[in-house]
């Protein structure tokens, strides 16, 4: 019987034997490069409160914090397709190295930012570099692992996300205990240096013998549409959802995205091949990835303020409280492939989405005095739910495409993930702002200090005794706003459960048919 532990019994490999022998070392190096990309966002989750502080940080407003997150994710998502095609054309290893170097330089620029605007711009450059890293890691995995081992490798790859979620907040909290806020970005630089050195020595290069053409019009339309849509959503939470400017901006964004889809359907070299979505398992898996990240990123955004501003914990303690979420992913992500073989893709992903939905719903019951062990249990179950959705869904996307389209498939999964996350932060962050502003009204809080709990608490601290009466109302208002955001997250999770139950296949996709020998990709050192 073929097993990963018994290579001799495995089916014959079509990968170069020298590459095949060191495939697990290659996977380890790719995990390091993935870690640095995911680590940055997980570190940022515990640092946003400090960055919002006018004395210790940059005095960023809540909308500026949302843009610090979304400038990264929107550039990342908008360029993933082009980065995947460039990797297919020029070699994935080359583009991976390029992306890592850009990411490292941009991390240094982020650490040195002197204003929220500079940080937002530097984060956008980080997103540019990350766009060349993420798809390359997954497409290289698809080319050095045979189908019978690919699910396990992708499970480990997904588990690395859990590892980053674990060490990111703890590392960020420890850094903020001893250093200034910019250290959470500076920590990326040594990781990038180690990763680049290991890639040069170990990772093979590969390319598509029939790469696609670039699609600059499609890329421009996708970025313009997403930026306009997200800007309108964030502006709606900041001002009013009935503001004509807000409605017009959202409408323009939707119109541009509709034009993008129309253009891509008619292009002979689309950035996003709409034909991929004709495959049921591809569409359902992509939707599951996007919906679960919409919910998760929105919750992660407000949990940093809940733990630090409401409950009074330090950034390091906040990171430790997030540890169960990562442990759940680390323990179950590598085991998801076995569960899929036993119970089927549909059953496993549906259960995963239901678990995620249940944990998101539980945040609506949390208040100022909720025992912290309950929160830890909820985070652990959330990590388990994520691990039952992400690896099977990612593998379904990759397995439904031929191997030489690995770059495009990887780009789709990561674009959906990033767009879902960006919209989650924008939509749920805007709900948080709107509800908070309504709840805090009437408590004597001055205009401008009512946009977020950090603004209110900062104003209270500077007002002295006269501002002491604003603290408790601010915390109560935030709790109420958090409940509405959590409810929105849970509804999105429930939609995801319905999608995967109705459209995911019962059995795992075994892999797309191999292409003729003359068109098969080669991997070389």
TrEMBL record:
Keywords: Antibiotic resistance, Cell membrane, Membrane, Transmembrane, Transmembrane helix, Transport. It is a multi-pass membrane protein. The chain crosses the membrane at residues 24-47, 67-86, 95-114, 120-141, 153-172, 178-202, 214-234, 246-263, 284-307, 345-366, 372-393, 484-504. Gene3D superfamilies: MFS general substrate transporter like domains, Multidrug resistance protein D. Signal peptide: none annotated. Residues 26-508 form the Major facilitator superfamily (MFS) profile domain. It holds the Pfam family MFS_1. InterPro entries: EmrB-like (IPR004638), MFS (IPR011701), MFS_dom (IPR020846), MFS_trans_sf (IPR036259). It is found in: Cell membrane. This is MFS transporter.
């Amino acid at each position: 019987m073929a097993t990963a532990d018994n290579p001799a019994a495995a089916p014959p490999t079509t990968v170069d034997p020298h590459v095949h022998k060191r495939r697990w070392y290659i996977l380890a190096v790719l995990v390091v490069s993935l870690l640095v990309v995911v680590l940055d966002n997980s570190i940022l989750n515990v640092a946003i409160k400090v960055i919002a502080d006018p004395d210790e940080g940059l005095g960023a407003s809540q909308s500026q914090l949302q843009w610090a997150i979304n400038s990264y994710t929107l550039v990342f998502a908008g360029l993933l397709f082009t980065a995947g095609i460039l990797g297919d054309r020029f070699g994935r290893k080359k583009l991976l190295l390029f992306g890592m170097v850009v990411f490292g330089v941009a991390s240094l620029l982020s650490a040195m930012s002197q204003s929220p605007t500079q940080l937002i711009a530097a984060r956008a450059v980080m997103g540019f570099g990350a766009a060349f890293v993420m798809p390359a890691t997954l497409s290289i995995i698809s080319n050095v692992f045979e189908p019978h081992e690919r699910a396990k490798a992708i499970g480990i790859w997904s588990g690395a996300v859990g590892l980053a979620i674990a060490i990111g907040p703890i590392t960020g909290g420890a850094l903020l205990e001893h250093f200034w806020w910019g250290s959470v970005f500076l920590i990326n630089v040594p990781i990038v240096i180690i990763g680049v050195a290991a890639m040069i020595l170990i990772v093979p290069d590969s390319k598509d013998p029939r790469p696609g053409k670039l699609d600059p019009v499609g890329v421009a339309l996708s970025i313009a549409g997403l930026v306009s849509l997200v800007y309108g959503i964030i502006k709606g939470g900041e001002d009013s959802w009935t503001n004509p400017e807000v409605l017009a901006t959202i409408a323009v964004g939707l119109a541009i995205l509709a034009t993008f889809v129309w253009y891509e359907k008619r292009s002979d070299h689309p950035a996003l091949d709409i034909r991929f979505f004709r495959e049921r398992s591809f569409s359902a898996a992509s939707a599951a990835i996007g919906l679960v990240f919409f919910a998760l990123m929105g919750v992660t955004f407000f949990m940093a303020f809940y733990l630090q501003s409401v409950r009074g914990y330090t950034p390091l303690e906040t990171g430790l409280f997030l540890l169960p979420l990562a442990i759940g992913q680390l323990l179950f992500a590598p085991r998801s492939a076995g569960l899929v073989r036993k119970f089927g893709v549909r059953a496993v992903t549906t259960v995963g989405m239901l678990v995620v939905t249940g944990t998101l719903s539980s945040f609506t019951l949390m208040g100022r005095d909720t025992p912290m062990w309950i929160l830890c249990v909820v985070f652990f179950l959330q990590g388990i739910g994520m691990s039952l959705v992400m690896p099977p869904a990612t593998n379904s996307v990759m397995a439904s495409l031929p191997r030489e389209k690995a770059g495009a498939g990887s780009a789709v999964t990561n674009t959906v993930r990033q767009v879902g996350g960006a919209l989650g932060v924008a939509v749920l962050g805007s709900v948080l702002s709107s509800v908070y502003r309504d709840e805090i009204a009437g408590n004597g809080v001055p205009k401008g200090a009512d946009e977020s709990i950090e603004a209110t608490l900062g104003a209270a601290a500077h007002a002295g005794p006269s501002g002491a009466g604003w603290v408790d109302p601010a915390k109560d208002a935030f709790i109420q706003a958090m409940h509405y955001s959590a409810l929105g997250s849970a509804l999105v999770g429930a939609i995801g459960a319905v999608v995967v139950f109705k459209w995911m296949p019962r059995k795992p996709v075994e892999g797309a048919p191999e292409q003729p020998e003359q068109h098969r990709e080669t991997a070389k050192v």
